[in-house]
Amino acid sequence: MNNHHATDVHVLAAAYALDALDPGERETFAAHLPGCDACRQDVADFRATAARLAASAARAAPAAMKQRTLAAVDHVRQLPPRVPAAAVSWRGTLRRRALPLALAASLAAAASLAGLAVRQDQEKQRLEQRARQSEQRLDQTGRVLAAPDARTVRARAANGALTSVVSSDRQHRAVFTAGGLPAPAPGTTYQLWLDHGGTMRPAGFINGDGTVLLDGDTADAARVGLTLEPAGGSPQPTTAPLVLMALRA
Fold first, then answer.
1. pTM
2. What is the DSSP letter of 222?
3. Number of domains in the chain
4. Same domain flag for 124 and 169
5. Residue 3 belongs to what H/E stretch?
6. Which domain holds residue 95?
7. By the 8 A CB rule, do 156 and 243 touch?
8. pLDDT tens per residue, the chain (249 residues)?
9. 158 in the same domain as 137
10. Spatial distance between the Cα atoms of 193 and 49, rounded to a whole number of angstroms
11. Are residues 125 and 240 in the same domain?
């Protein structure tokens, strides 16, 4: 095999991966493939790209398609045998087939890389936003704890945990702290509440020992409660409070 012919065989990789070769061409490339690492890699890449394109465009067939297809079979004439045109050169055929397939694969790869870059940028923005939110809550927690009018109320919860609430009337915020809080049972979580005139409103979650800033304005709240709720929380308490503490001693 001369070098010019070897180059033509290499460009068959895309057509081979998509099963678009004539029997003779396929036999020629199959004989070449075991000894060419580059072609084996190209075939694997083209097959993977074709699979991604097929998956992205796949749609469920209409329920009536099978019946319509079977009904139409009797009225469809068979195609005559395919006879290759002797005037078409083998090299021209290879180029016409390989170039569009290679272009399609390149476009698919570019689209995949572009999509990955977008997802990475979105994930980066999401993490940065969460970091900013965490920093803001830490700053607000510190301001409540250091407020000149901060007041502290302590109590022991029904499960033995030591709890406290520090509140600031000027800031209309409160901070809840727990120590010795047992791990919640699987499928449950500790939820905090603010008592507004007898109506308990969700005020956040605490998953273990630590300090959290309560969600919501405490200006007209009388008490802080802690309950054990289903994972994800509840709009209203579903269990008896483990502790209820007055915001003002």
1. 0.51
2. -
3. 2
4. no
5. helix 3-10
6. 1-54+89-146
7. yes
8. 444 344 467 777 777 877 777 888 888 888 888 888 888 887 787 776 666 555 555 556 666 666 776 666 666 666 666 655 554 455 555 556 665 666 666 666 666 666 766 777 777 777 777 777 677 777 788 888 888 898 999 999 999 999 999 999 999 999 999 999 999 999 999 999 999 999 999 999 998 888 899 999 998 999 999 999 999 999 999 999 999 999 876
9. no
10. 52
11. no
